[in-house]
Amino acid sequence: MKHQKASILQRAIGGILDYLIVYYIIKYWVFADIGKVLPAEWSPTLCLLISAIIALSYFLVSEILFSRTLGKLLVNTKVVSDYGRKPSIFSFFLRTYGRILPFEFVPLLYGKPAFHDESSNTTVITLPFPFKRK
Questions:
Q1: pTM of this prediction?
Q2: Domain-by-domain residue ranges, the chain?
Q3: I want to staple 72 with a disulfide (CB 3.0 to 4.6 A). Which of 4, 20, 35, 77 is the partner?
């Protein structure tokens, strides 16, 4: 079965939603509670490290379990291997850690796969809408 690749707009909106969700988790759940326990003189490097671990964990866990994140769910897209199947756990690791690179999404603007797609042999597809119009 031939899958339709997700559009740049779908991917951009899904990505923005995911990063807003990660920001909310970090700011209002993690650091709001940690700030009550640990001293206020935290190193910015430590805060950045904790934030990166949380962000990467969000992508890794949700994509391994569901092949999609909340952002992808909202724009009706999903991650598949280049063969149209669910990617391996190793592919999800490569995909997640490929996101660390700055500007890794730029190739998408030129119709090419992002680094995290290319390195993991995955792509994001559009799913059929669950509700049909009459």
A1: 0.82
A2: 8-126
A3: 77
